[in-house]
Records
---
Amino acid sequence: MPSFDRSLLSDEVGKLVHAEAQTWNTGGVSPARLHSALELGIDMGRVVFKHLPVTAQVRIAVRTALCIPVDDFDTGLENIAEFVDRFHSGRPQLHPMLDLLAQELGRTPEYVHSYGAAGIVTSTVQFVASEVMERDVGAQPVSEAAPEFLMYRRLRNGIADAYAYPIWDKTQFPSPSVHIQAVPITSDFICYANDLLSFYKEELAGETGNFIHSRARVSGKSVEDALMNTLDDAVDAVNRARKILRGDERQAWESFMEGYVMFHFLTPRYKLEKLFCSE
């Protein structure tokens, strides 16, 4: 298991996020579920985006924590199904946590430039819509004639762009002229890496509707081959991003990549400690 010194992480992010959460109307979401979402969000902010100012880490942590109840349907499927329409029309949401998410999206220009803020909002709204759509239609098989749909769907339910844009915050990187070219590749990397690092826990749960199993079915390959193809794609995304980025923009990307991988090892949600530390 990769080593990582948690003492290098700032406690300030956690303190600020928990202090803010004390002011929330959580609408009946259990304290245990909320605490789990907050801790995951805090790790996302301070591990993955450790190169950013603390203020940006806090906002990313809060946004992540507010998306978890959507992913786990803690705020009610009927309420989540109304989110997109209500967000676009500016109407109040049907659950207080969804109101908090809508409000948080309005704060994205605080730490990224307007182009990135638009991408974060779009990605998050698409994430909510895809969660509802997938719950409505169920596990529909993907046609062999539509392999592109796998990544189309994955980029949306993986909320990838929302984590690619903040790598280069507007304070340290006021111009997107270079790193903008690396955003699509980074979004691909986020999906591929998450699929690889989530695969163990999903296998334990017997899940077969994930990207890797779907890729195997559509391509006519084994699950093992699909897993290795996904690893190859992740490595390719890393290599291409490194060809695009230079200087501080490259350093920011490297810090993000290292942190994104380590986040999966540090977070109990992915059960990787059990895999690598089993006797």
---
Amino acid sequence: MSFASEIRRHFGKEDESGIKKLQEDIRKIYKDINDEKKSDCISDIEKVCKDLNEIYMDEDTENMVIETIRSLSFYQNLPWFREAFKRLLSFLEEDYYLRTDAMRNVLDSGWASNESYAFSEDDRGDAFIKKLLPDIVEEFYLDLPEDVLEDELLNLKRDAFIKRFFLGRYIFRNPDSLKILEDEYQYLYKVVEKEIQLIKDRPGSYEKKLMEDILRISQKIADAEGIRTYSSISTLQESLIDTYYKNLIAEYPDEADDLRDERSKWLKIRGNDTCPCGSGRKFKKCHGA
């Protein structure tokens, strides 16, 4: 890129023809995805990268790029598109001027989504964790306050918290199950990294906070839809534990008898009993804390 081009990009007047070309090339990406024109789509992304190098980047243009990344990310269920999408993410990572919090968040989200699909196809990954992560990842990078969420996104947030509850239980039961994320999937691991130590050290506090969030959001959804929901933390906890073990049994039918026994212990546990998690601590000082 020429020095004059770099100066124009940072300090020059907005090039309306350049913006128009960028918009046209972005629209063509969507058309070629829908028409399954793979090579044309890859070429479109290269054109968009070139367009971005030639225009002045103001706030409106950056917002357009952010929305493009966010929406294109949903097409990563198409294996052929993932590599092309990675090219766009890599270009934006390398270009130093795109460093607002909003851009950083959408890039992290794009990479995490890319890794999520790759992990789902990785034979070394834990099958149960593969089913929990997508909603957790999407909610983590949603970057919107709860009070502005409605309908589908509010349901997504609640479902993600429920799956975090399941994930916490599963990590405690299978501490090595996230090793592959830590080693090879940095953006996925980032989603759960801060919570792993809390899950190990204070599982009761971790679960209680999640259940409070789930109950609050469930009540908000119920009020909006005019339906009934959980009446208390205790009824919610019983439902979560029951659902968690039903999901485990469905995933690991050969272990069904042991899992049913384990579920029964959790549903009957009292404060001074030994915690069924295997920590050796009393329930009231472990998962019941």
---
Amino acid sequence: MTDDEATPETALDWVVDPTTPAEKGQLPLSVVIITENEEEQIEACIESVFAACRGVSAFEVILVDSASTDRTVERAREYPVTILRIPEEHTVSCGAGRFVGDQVARGELVLHVDGDMTLTDEWLPRAIDYLRNNADTVGVEGCLDESTQTGVMEVDKIGGVTLYDAEALAAISGFDPWLQGYEDVDVGFQLTTAGNRLVRLPEVSATHDVDSEIPEPLRRWRQGYYVAPGQTIRKWLGEPAVLRLLLRRQRFKLALVAWFAAGALSLVFTQLLLGWVVLSAIGFVMIATKRGPMGAVDFLATKTLAIGGVAEGLTRSPRPASAYPLSAIEVVATGRVLQGSPLDTEKQTASTDGSTESTAQQD
């Protein structure tokens, strides 16, 4: 990057305090990056954020790390970004990371990015322009990795790389830090049932690095994603509008539960057993026609595993976001307000500049 491609950085004296929600609208844009053991991708992620924000007059980058055991935080500290760390003993999830980042974010708009994603240059300017020119829209996403979409599509939730109106997000208390996953669905359904609009733009927003060494169902189980739908359903049992959307999203799992129940019933009324077996075989063949035999087995196994997760999630009582232990969040480094795209030299000076030193070193 040359000097002609960047504008100087603007320093700003401020104290990062996760326990006190920051006033929104102080900057045009805040970027919240969430990480957990992303040392291989985090530099590309941060640099892609800087590149995508080249046309933004002023922005800040807040990285929230979920108890990484690798060098994610060490590598991120080479950049002029705010770094917060959630200790391992507290709830570690995507929702918790987004919630913590939004607490200190001061932007009029807030961009959420996962640390294993690399932003494209074209999507963010388009997303910012769309939000500012469509007052009824409060959230925008793009397509991940590739796109066959030709126009703007209205959706009921957004995920992956997302741009929100910060005030609209704060009005529903933002992301739920206690959910093990599904935080984007939870927020999306709240916003849309309140009359707000969410859209997906046809542009590719980012490329996403997927860990192929761990099977997807196992990865989702280990990270609690299968538990999250049950948690969310229980949370909204008293709100029919949101609950209806959640149940509709789980319709395939509910159908499978009903089918298993019919199978159990056929064991009692044996004259029904043959019909259940035959229909089960027909159903498997139909799935296998689209996915192949092993794909059908994987599909059914995944849905069965997810049913167990939903059942477990339903046993978990919802907790208010205000109960999340924000006082335990460690402020590792305090970043600065940036203008345009930071100079390459800022990567080297970030670790020596007082505004990005850890709080321990400042003491």
